[in-house]
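Here is the promised in-class demo. Please do not try to memorize the tokens; focus on the logic of going from shape to residues.
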């Protein structure tokens, strides 16, 4: 034993420590390339099969022609991109932008104070409030839209109440206001949750310091709270605007098909007109708009 101890190299501090060989160095590494591939394979497979492959198919169809009876004729053309700038389709895009933008602004106006109030609640009530916010998502989307039809129809609950007050009935269904209402109801939680997450992380000492320096509550909100929550505002606006811009179920059901949005147009081209190349071009244009919005949101969040 004494000979073995003497054979061990001494550390600079005088302690006898065993030398670490290659096996010892490898033992401290968390797996290797094989482990990384094993963990990434399910997610990468999901993205490739359900995102990249369909997107590649849509991209390829944009340069082909529609068949006489529908489908795809594999002859090269750029006509599909030219048709995008037809005034008829530009009007649809403009209408979609207006409805989605209005929905986003109203969601921000309602969602910000809601998220702010939830962040000020005790922990017990925060949990209850957050459950109440996400509770509608536990119900099927179509059922929730049908519920609005029942509420806003001629003999529905809203008109019955207005009639009892001598104020109705009114035609509440099948207009742009109803579409905005349905979109707002469906996507308002997507505005509240990121705002709440941002406000919750704010250091309360910053607001206390502002108050101690003589700032009013409004000045503290304008110069301290609001600038620090800009990333949450941008994220919430993106989460509401993107699905509102491409939605086709709510305009069809609550708008009665009178208001055509981009989602309705894409669905019509694929399923009714059977013009897959032009439908693919519209879908690709929608994806391009969303990518631009994501880039703008990331840039603005970095500068905030």
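The designed amino acids, position by position:
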């Amino acid at each position: 034993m004494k000979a073995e101890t003497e054979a061990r190299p001494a550390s600079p501090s005088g302690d006898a420590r065993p030398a670490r060989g290659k096996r010892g160095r490898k033992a401290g590494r968390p797996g290797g390339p094989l482990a990384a591939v094993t963990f990434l394979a399910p997610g990468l497979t999901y993205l490739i099969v359900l995102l990249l492959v369909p997107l590649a198919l849509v991209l390829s169809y944009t340069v082909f022609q529609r068949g006489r009876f529908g489908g795809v004729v594999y002859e090269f053309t750029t006509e599909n991109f030219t048709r995008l700038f037809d005034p008829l389709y530009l009007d649809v895009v403009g209408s979609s932008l207006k409805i989605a933008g209005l929905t986003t602004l109203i969601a921000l106006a309602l969602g910000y104070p809601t998220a702010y109030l939830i962040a000020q609640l005790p922990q017990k009530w925060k949990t209850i409030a957050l459950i109440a916010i996400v509770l509608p998502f536990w119900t099927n989307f179509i059922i929730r839209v049908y519920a609005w039809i029942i509420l806003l129809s001629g003999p529905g609950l809203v008109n019955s109440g207005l009639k009892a007050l001598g104020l109705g009935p009114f035609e509440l269904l099948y207009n742009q206001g109803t579409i905005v209402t349905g979109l707002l109801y469906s996507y308002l939680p997507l505005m509240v949750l990121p705002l709440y997450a941002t406000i919750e992380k704010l250091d309360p000492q910053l607001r206390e310091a502002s108050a101690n320096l003589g700032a009013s509550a409004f000045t503290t909100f304008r110069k301290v709270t609001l600038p620090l929550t800009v990333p949450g505002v941008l994220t919430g606006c993106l989460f509401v605007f993107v699905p509102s811009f491409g939605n086709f179920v709510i305009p069809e059901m609550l708008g009665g098909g009178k208001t055509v949005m981009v989602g309705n147009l894409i669905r019509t081209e694929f399923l009714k007109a059977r013009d897959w190349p032009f439908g693919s071009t519209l879908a690709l244009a929608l994806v391009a708009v969303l990518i631009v919005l994501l880039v703008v949101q990331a840039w603005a969040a970095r500068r905030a």
